[in-house]
Design brief:
The chain is an alpha/beta fold and 473 residues long. It contains 12 helices and 21 strands. The protein has helices at 89-106, 143-148, 182-196, 235-248, 302-316, 333-338, 352-364, 377-380, 383-389, 406-415, 427-437, 467-472, and strands at residues 7-16, 21-26, 29-34, 41-49, 53-63, 130-136, 158-163, 166-172, 211-218, 224-230, 254-259, 272-276, 281-285, 288-292, 323-327, 344-349, 370-374, 394-397, 419-424, 441-449, 459-466. β4 and β5 (53-63) form a beta hairpin.
Length: 473
């Protein structure tokens, strides 16, 4: 017999606790709660119940915080994408600033973190240049709809986002505020057509269905790319759908499709077929142009990416004499953005297509002093590589959320660049890595940047300066 999970009633939430959670105190324990804000009084179902702390989800809100505002999206509370819409934007920024300070103190062991005021986003809606939607024959139903559901008669025809913690259910999205209204027009038009034509939607458990994913990329230049991902190739249905899209959405600059017969949704190892257009769109950051193809990795908030890169450029303090290593360079965007102040740019990334795009981006911007190399950063950056391409004056790292590998941290300290600039989308792993670098480097500036309004996600740029260089200056 399953033990009934503990419940706490009338818990007052008194502070923000990082990663979108708030905290309250009950009988000497700290209770972390998702789905509420400081000032709320809530009933909570505990999912974890330890000696000194617990964690749970909100069952009901007895009293709303005075800080709350009305969410503007009709899907708020179910979608899971913009969890902080109920907080004023300035309050969101305060909590993110607080998280940066506390994380660098607690994990980075930095007593007085040199954290600068967070740089908020100028656009808090319509700020993403990429959205990905999922087709599903298992539409998410609210509790009221579930009661009316007949056995084995689950309604399909969903095109939207996966519901958090329900991997096989997709919320039908009618309106999304993350991108210009063009995303609504594309998604809703395709859904209506597909249902009317009887096209099958993907079933994640059975691995069946024709229509699988929809990826929209919309650059600040106004160029629009759409990639339709099919579970298998049905030529007649595919061509009819593509013709319909081009007729109904003439704003599309590139229309592509991908056949994905795999069990997972990744397409990096699959061929993308161009139906219409040049096969890519062009984005602009500052004075630089970047090619965005269907499989490219690129910062998803273009306008705020320029702000982020301006911080990196400022921290680098380039004079035209520096050799700059851009590790985890992706399509080369950071290195290219800094290229006019550097003697040479050396980029490394594990994704072959990203390196190809990096070379094309450099050529597009007439940059001849940048070189890019494909391979695991840990394996590529050995003594022979540094001997051939020169010792770095500045190392820029922009790793995935897991942070830097200990071997790479050791190698960077061994080659001892004068400056390290660490760009991170996860301040917890960034703080952990900074703690490992503190012996030889002073952490002189930490700049939080908000790339994703209405979420708890936070980007941060750290400037580290070699201690001997500081002492000699």
């Amino acid at each position: 017999m399953k033990r009934k999970k503990p419940r706490i009633n009338d818990l007052e939430l008194v502070a923000y606790a990082a990663e979108g959670k708030s905290l309250g105190r009950h009988e000497g324990k700290v209770i972390f709660v998702e789905g509420a804000v400081p000032g709320d009084v809530v009933d909570v179902q505990l999912s974890k119940n330890k000696k000194d702390w617990g964690e749970g989800k909100v069952l009901s809100i007895k009293k709303f915080s005075s800080e709350r505002v009305e969410p503007f999206c009709r899907h708020f509370g179910v979608c899971g994408g913009c969890k902080w819409q109920m907080l004023p934007y300035q309050q969101q920024l305060q909590y993110k600033q607080q998280e940066a300070l506390e994380t660098f103190r607690r994990i980075g062991k930095i007593e007085e973190p040199p954290v600068l005021p967070i740089l908020g986003a100028p656009d808090i809606i319509y700020y993403r240049n990429k959205l990905e939607f999922t087709f599903s024959d298992r539409r998410y139903l609210n509790p009221g709809e579930l009661k009316l559901l007949e056995e084995d008669n689950w309604p399909g025809g969903a095109l939207g986002y996966h519901v958090p913690r329900l991997f096989d259910k997709v919320l039908n999205i009618s309106e999304c505020w993350l991108m210009d209204d063009v995303n609504n027009r594309i998604r809703n038009t395709i859904r209506e057509y597909s249902i009317a034509e009887g096209l099958s939607f993907y079933n994640i458990k059975e691995h069946t269905g024709l229509l699988r994913n929809l990826v929209i990329r919309y650059a600040s230049t106004g160029e629009l790319l759409l990639n339709v991902i099919f579970g298998f190739d049905a030529e007649l249905e595919r061509k009819k759908l593509c013709d319909f899209i081009l007729e109904k959405v003439p704003a599309i600059d590139t229309l592509a499709y991908t056949i994905n017969p795999k069990w997972n949704d990744t397409i990096y190892d699959l061929e993308v077929h161009t139906v219409y257009g040049k096969g890519f769109i062009t984005e602009k950051l500052g004075k630089y142009l970047f090619k965005i193809s269907p499989k490219s990795f690129f910062q998803t908030n273009s306008r705020q990416a320029s702000t982020l890169y301006d911080v990196v450029k400022s921290f680098a303090g380039l004079t035209g004499k520096e050799t700059v290593y851009d590790l985890y360079c992706g399509t080369g965007s950071i290195g290219i953005y800094l290229s006019d102040g550097a003697k040479s740019i050396i980029g490394v990334d594990t994704v072959e297509d990203a390196i190809k795009d990096a070379y094309e981006n450099a050529a597009m911007n007439n940059i001849e002093h940048a070189s890019f190399f494909c391979g695991d950063v840990i394996d590529v950056c050995n003594d022979d590589f540094f001997n051939r391409h020169g010792k770095p004056d500045i190392v820029i790292v922009d790793p995935p959320r897991a942070g830097l590998h200990p071997k790479l941290i050791s190698k960077i300290q061994e080659i001892a660049p004068g400056r390290i600039i660490y760009v991170s989308c996860n301040v917890a792993t960034q703080a952990r890595d900074l703690a490992s670098l503190k012996e030889n480097y002073n952490i002189t500036q930490l700049q939080p940047v908000d790339m994703f309004p209405h979420t708890h996600h936070l980007e941060c740029v750290a400037l580290l300066q070699k201690i001997t260089d500081i002492n000699n200056s």
